[in-house]
Amino acid sequence: MHFLKRSFRRLLGGAEAGLTRMYGWQWNPMHQAGTVSALMLLVLVATGLYLVMFYRVGDPAASVARMAADPWLGSWIRSLHRYATDVFVLAAVVHALKMFSQDRSWGPRTLAWISGLVLFGIGMLLAVTGFVMAWDSFGERLAREGGRLLDFLPIFSEPVSRIFAGDGPVPSAFFFVNLFIHIALPLGLGIALWLHISRVARPTVLPPKRLAWGMIGALTLASIVRAAPLGSAADPLRLVSTTPTDFIVAWWLPISEKLSPGMAWSLALVALVVALLVPRLTRRPRTASWAPSVVDPRLCTGCNQCPQDCPWEAITMVPRTDDRPTLVALVDPALCVSCGICAGSCAPMGVGPAERTGRDQLLVFRTETLPALLDAPAMPVVAITCSQVPSAHRDAVRVLGAHIHPVTCVGNLHSSVVELFIRNGAPGVMIFGCPPRDCVGREGPKWLQERLFNDREAELQLRVDRRRVRVGTMAPGDLAGAIAAYNTFVRDLNELDTPVRESQVDIDFECEPVPFEDSSE
Amino acid sequence: MTPVRMLSAVVTTTAGLALLVWMSAVTFPHHESNDAALRLSFSARPERIEVCRTLSDEELEELAEHMRQRVSCEGVLATYTLRIEIDGKTIGESVVRGAGLRHDRPLYLLQDYSVPPGKHRFRVSLTRREKTDNDAAAYAKAVVPEVDTGLYAGRAQREANERARRAGVAIPASLVLDTTLVLPPQRVALIRFNAARRALELYAEAPSK
Asked: E-strand spans in A218-273?
């Protein structure tokens, strides 16, 4: 399983880097594969609503052929519907593989994984019923194979396959049921999507507008330039040599046709079981870097910030058991994914995964980082980097003279660490995170920016010169961008005064307590 | 975005779209050979092999009123041997029976046989395996229902009629279709059961000779 994970990570990383080189990380669709799938669902609903107005269950092949022959709307809307289906499938597969390879498929994410599988399954079923609706040679081929597989199961009183034998027209009832499934299943899709994102706070469902419209525009252009072909009308009494097959949706068809129904079902069942078992097979012991966050009630001031920042809604505020008039944070380990975002959100440093709380970060700074820096002839510029960024990028910045200070996620970083670097004489601190929409902790870069520059709770103190702090992105495939951002930062720093190291730096941390409101009063 | 990156984005997008369009309609081989096919497709109720007897008045009295059938039958549905011969050569032989776990559903048949195109003599036979005269049809003819009176007036006759009707639409003990066809390449000749005629018949676009 680890080999698979590493392989997919390498494969996807390479593809991602390539796309970043082409588009830039801001518009890299692989960073938002999940939201691209959701966008395609919207496109499918919109185009599907148009197409269904012209579809006739009494004469499906002719009605679809009429649509395909309409050069103004029908042809390209039908093609857009089809291409959006393909992009949905591809994006969903990439999204799933990314989650798998990044260890984001187990523990609290199990529900998302399972509901994602359901979403994908429903999507594939919708795609198959959609192709059957067209009732061309490919639709007939899919229907025949579907009938063959279904007839193996003891669920129908009469074999489904006989519908396509050719001793009579395929009944309209079949196309009606097929259409009903094709229209009704999106409701199930909606429920599964709701479940899929139910455990995350502030779910991001759609890609950025520019990317979304860009993708829709590109697919529309492709639909106009090259309409999706329609096979010859289905004829049960004719054996066609070839069918125009949608490989993305029906890659399994030639394999399935060659197998006995029992074998085909067995293989599908094995694949399903393995997919369902992924959360079990990939789970890790909840220790070390996977340990859930804990709260030190002595330090918690009840400020209510960590529940707001937690991307997984794993923290709630509950009444205290002692006599202090505030609430206290409580982490649900079953929901916590150990992203450590809460550690960066807590001004008094009272919450976070073991060895990653703000206090732990300060301890490491004082005992390991600072002594090493003080030994250097001159205090270097500091680059704080997320552990997920490519090591080549990190090394390149190191070669440029930066002192590298790694953190598990930039959202994990406590602003006091940045302050300590500056007040101990570092000319500047540049924090390199992952692309904002591709953060393993979901909202690391977002909250970091807010805390450093927009006074979000656990903010960087006013006494720190903001000109000496900058946030950058290290995206795979954008080494030049990372180096350029770093060089620009250094150039800007050179225009500032020489930094002065303060003696006896003592960070004081504050957080306005939320008064405890007794509901009984 | 620099012009170079813009250009590379346009090129990548175009290539990606071309790949998507191609993958959306890959030509997959299906029936690669030039062969035609002989297809058997029908559903029909097998004969019921029964042992029937007329219940005495005393036996009827012991039953609840709504259970009182003059003629009581017990048995199973018949099974058949299906044999397909092309140009005198048997290409398929199998036992077919009613559907369902207890084989008490109608018999459904859907089989395809690959045949080289051209002129062929086809012989399809369906022969009952059970050797018995005690089938419902035989019995229905033999039974002369008594004239019931009172509450059961005409019941025995109705039962006999129903048995005769069921036997009348069932597959007979032996069915044979022997014909010669010219099959064009990649066409299907369909053989089905005509329930009205109780015979196998050809349903095909191919001209029969």
From this structure: 242-245
Q: Which residue has the tokens 């279904």?
A: A150
Task: Specify if B103 maps to a domain.
Answer: yes
Q: Burial level of A137, CB count in 10 A (0-12/13-18/19+)?
A: buried
The pLDDT value recorded for residue A271 is 96
- Nearest chain A Cα to B202, which residue? A167
The interface predicted TM-score (ipTM) is: 0.87
Facing residue for B23 by CB, picked from A219, A237, A248: A248
Q: How far apart are CA A350 and CA A344, in angstroms?
A: 10
Residue B4 lies in a domain: no
Chain A residues inside the 8 Å CB shell of B190: 165-167, 237
CB A435 within 8 A of CB A28: yes
What amino acid occupies position A462?
Answer: L
Asked if the structure places residue B15 within a domain, the reply is: no
How many domains, in total, are found in chain B? 1
pLDDT at B144 over 60: no
pLDDT of residue B208: 35
Chain region(s) in chain A for CATH 1.20.810.10: 32-282
How would residue A312 be classed by pLDDT, with cut points 50, 70 and 90? Answer: very high
What are the distances in angstroms from CA A82 to CA A88, A209, A327, A398, B200?
10, 22, 53, 48, 43
What is the reported pLDDT for B206? 39
Structure confidence at residue A516 as a pLDDT band (50, 70, 90) = very low
Selecting from B13, B24, B186 the residue whose C-beta is nearest the C-beta of A248 gives B24
Return all residues near B11 (Cβ < 8 A) that are at least 6 apart.
Answer: A22
Segments forming the whole domain that contains residue B103: 33-203
In a domain, B25, yes or no: no
| Top-tier CATH class for A351-494 | alpha beta
Q: What is the CATH number of domain A32-282?
A: 1.20.810.10
Distance (Å) from the alpha carbon of B68 to chain A's nearest alpha carbon: 30
Least confidently predicted of A415-424, B14-23, B131-140: B131-140
- Which of B28, B36, B205 lies closest to A254 in CB terms? B28
Residue B40: in which H helix or E strand, if any? strand B36-44
Q: CATH 3.40.50: which residues of chain A? A: 351-494
The residue among A22, A28, A235 with the most chain B CBs within 10 A of its CB, best to mutate, is: A22
Q: Is A298 helix (H, G, I), strand (E, B) or coil?
A: coil
